[in-house]
């Protein structure tokens, strides 16, 4: 967006106040070609900052984007989106970002119950014939390619005023949240009954263009309500579109209170219906209104011959001769039209525009599968549930039982020629995929989406690692660490400075209150900066995201991608590597799940209480194996019990233990006397320490 700053831009005058854009910022309108003050446009700081971060997005002034009442014009918005859609999907991405900045965040509507709807007779006949369990009735909407948005508008507010706004919001929803809809569990199933998703986005941005299941799924998120799709079995029960299109679409975000919106697939054509060749071309809403029976003068062309004669006043049917035996509902029947009644007999809610043909022919096909609609049945060769048993295509096996190294990831991402548009559906075990990542790269500073059909991942255990590497001339990676503002390649562990801790009270080295080893045995890491510091254009960054399934923690996934790659490695700019590992990796633990050890020091009061408790317990159960270590005049007792999940190691010839109560008590009292006598003098007497794992179970200190 062109902006003006400072006081030197006197050649541009504001179109509203006619003053020069001086002293504050000015914005240029892409429609009217005039400059405007930011103050005159009443731009919010958030919107202005968003346009600054998106310089390729042109600005539109308030007058050009508003209607006569001063509200946001959805007619102009859909025209601008249609103009962008003609130039391709990339242009549509830019224009969608602009439109969503000016629109209100949520759809504003009021649930209205209309006492009287106009009935769609043709859709009502289909509903009563093929969906008799539905207790609602089909309301009439305009018969055009905007019927889906009109149907949802009627179901929400009782009229079609929201149709254009719904189309605009639906287009924005499909483009912005593309990853959400393309990574649904039923994506592969819906592709059998709908065009390509990106093509559907372009169609949604075009006025009077057809809608599909992708549009209906996005509309559920726009209105924040469940949308129930009802598809009649006109083509017979063998039509697999029945199991695919009869579903409930769930919103992406929060759900408003209210019942499900029911949308019925119908047809606007008034020609003869032949089972196996019926194609829906419009949608109607199912609403609550009094059930109105069909007029005697209007007969549905979708009924079976047995029901046709019962609904006509004086039916006249001529059954033609049949040479081969057939079932009763497959007879070829020609029914002549009866004498039409007067218009007064028609109900007010009926569609008076519906005209019955002079005669029609109902001829079910001998083989329904031969007449299945290609639009619904093309390339349906696997069942939806087979994705759990069919191996996903396009993957490469992992070598060994571990993830790829950083060098291997670099070689794969920069040389792979087969790049998948998304992670394929199916079984994925010990395999990796190279997937297009242009969607996440396009929307920077936003959350990345790496969705698949494996299930829900544990978000609490997911971790992200960021690593720095120096890229050499022969495409080799040299690892290094960024410490502060310096790049360091090598690290050195040096002993820490020795000395008596202020809180140590004269304890010998190794007997302090710190964790693990004593102060003299601890080592610190010293970073050695690289000399000279490498250039920024030679440093690449590797991001690795680890996650595991909630229901099966042994099933691990890692997503890896590079940033700051040089231009000569253009293949690795917009791709990521998805690895799936089902076998446990030795030593592979997520940072959040790492076990930590610490040492606690017991006071003498707690020590005596612990010793007393241990003495009473010795009479009931056998004490665990202990190991003594002498250090000067003090005795330290360490537990040798194995950790959880590790094999317990038993000595070949365990020493005999004397559990005599008299000897045990004498030894305990002797130890306590040593501690009381030497602790006050500040001699080198250690205090008993108990080492325990961070498993939530404290081990009781005992003297043997």
TrEMBL record:
This is Vertnin. InterPro entries: Vertnin-like, VRTN_OTU_dom, Zinc_finger_PHD-type_CS, Znf_FYVE_PHD, Znf_PHD. Belongs to the vertnin family. SUPFAM superfamilies: FYVE/PHD zinc finger. The keyword Protein biosynthesis does not apply. Residues 504-516 have a biased composition (Basic residues). One of its GO terms (biological process) is regulation of transcription by RNA polymerase II. Residues 491-523, 591-704 are annotated as: Disordered. It comes from Littorina saxatilis. Residues 694-704 have a biased composition (Acidic residues). Residues 665-681 have a biased composition (Basic and acidic residues). Residues 13-65 form the Zinc finger PHD-type domain.
């Amino acid at each position: 967006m062109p902006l003006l700053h400072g006081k030197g831009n006197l050649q541009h005058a504001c179109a509203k106040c006619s003053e020069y854009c001086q002293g504050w910022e000015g914005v240029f309108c892409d429609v009217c070609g005039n400059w405007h003050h930011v103050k005159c446009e009443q731009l919010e700081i958030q919107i202005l900052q968003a346009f600054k971060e998106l310089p390729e997005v042109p600005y539109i002034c308030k007058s050009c984007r508003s209607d006569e009442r001063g509200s946001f014009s959805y007619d102009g918005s859909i025209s601008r989106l249609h103009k962008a859609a003609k130039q391709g999907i990339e242009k549509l991405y830019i224009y969608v970002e602009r439109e969503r900045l000016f629109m209100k965040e949520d759809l504003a509507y009021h649930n209205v119950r209309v006492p009287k709807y106009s009935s769609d007779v043709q859709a009502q006949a289909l509903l009563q014939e093929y969906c008799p369990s539905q207790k609602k009735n089909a309301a009439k909407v305009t018969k055009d390619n905007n019927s889906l948005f009109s149907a949802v508008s009627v179901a929400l507010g009782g009229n079609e005023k929201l149709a254009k706004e719904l189309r605009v919001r639906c287009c924005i929803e499909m483009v912005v949240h593309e990853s959400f809809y393309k990574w649904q569990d039923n994506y592969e199933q819906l592709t059998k009954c709908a065009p390509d998703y990106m093509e559907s986005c372009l169609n949604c941005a075009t006025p009077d263009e057809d809608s599909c299941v992708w549009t209906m799924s996005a509309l559920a998120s726009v209105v924040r309500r469940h949308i129930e799709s009802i598809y009649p079995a006109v083509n017979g029960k063998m039509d697999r579109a029945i199991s695919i299109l009869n579903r409930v679409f769930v919103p992406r975000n929060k759900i408003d209170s209210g019942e499900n919106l029911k949308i019925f697939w119908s047809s606007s054509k008034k020609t003869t219906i032949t089972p196996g060749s019926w194609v829906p071309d419009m949608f109607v809403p199912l609403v609550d209104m009094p059930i109105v029976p069909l007029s005697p003068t209007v007969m549905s062309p979708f009924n079976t011959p047995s029901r046709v004669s019962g609904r006509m006043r004086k039916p006249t049917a001529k059954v033609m001769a049949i040479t081969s035996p057939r079932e009763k509902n497959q007879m070829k029947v020609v029914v002549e039209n009866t004498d039409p009644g007067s218009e007064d007999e028609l109900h007010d809610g009926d569609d008076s525009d519906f005209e019955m043909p002079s005669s029609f022919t109902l001829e079910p096909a001998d083989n329904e599968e031969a007449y299945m609609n290609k639009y619904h049945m093309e390339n349906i060769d696997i069942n939806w549930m087979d994705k759990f048993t069919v191996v996903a295509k396009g993957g490469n096996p992992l070598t060994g039982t571990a993830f790829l190294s950083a060098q291997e990831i670099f070689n794969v991402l920069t040389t792979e020629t087969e790049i998948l548009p998304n992670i394929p559906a199916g079984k994925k075990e010990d395999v990796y995929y190279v997937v297009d990542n242009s969607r996440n790269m396009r929307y920077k500073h936003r959350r990345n989406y790496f969705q698949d059909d494996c299930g829900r991942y544990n978000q609490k255990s997911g971790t992200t690692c960021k690593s720095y590497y120096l890229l050499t001339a022969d495409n080799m990676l040299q690892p290094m660490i960024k410490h502060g503002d310096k790049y360091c390649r090598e690290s050195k562990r040096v002993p820490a400075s020795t000395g008596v801790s202020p809180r140590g009270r004269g304890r010998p080295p190794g007997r302090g209150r710190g964790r693990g080893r004593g102060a003299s045995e601890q080592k610190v890491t010293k970073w050695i900066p690289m000399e000279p510091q490498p250039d920024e254009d030679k440093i690449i960054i590797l991001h690795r995201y680890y996650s595991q399934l909630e229901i099966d923690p042994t099933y691990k996934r890692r997503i890896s991608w590079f940033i700051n790659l040089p231009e000569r490695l253009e293949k690795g700019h917009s791709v990521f590597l998805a690895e799936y590992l089902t076998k446990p990796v030795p030593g592979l633990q997520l940072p959040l799940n790492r076990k930590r050890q610490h040492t606690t020091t017991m006071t003498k009061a707690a020590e005596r209480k612990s010793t007393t408790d241990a003495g009473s317990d010795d009479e009931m159960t056998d004490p665990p194996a202990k190991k003594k270590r002498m250090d000067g005049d003090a005795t330290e007792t360490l537990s040798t019990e194995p950790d959880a999940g590790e094999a317990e190691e038993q000595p070949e010839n365990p020493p005999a233990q004397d559990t005599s109560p008299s000897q045990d008590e004498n030894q305990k009292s002797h130890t306590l006397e040593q501690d009381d006598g030497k602790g006050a003098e500040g001699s080198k007497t250690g205090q008993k320490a108990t080492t325990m794992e961070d498993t939530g179970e404290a081990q009781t200190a005992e003297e043997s």
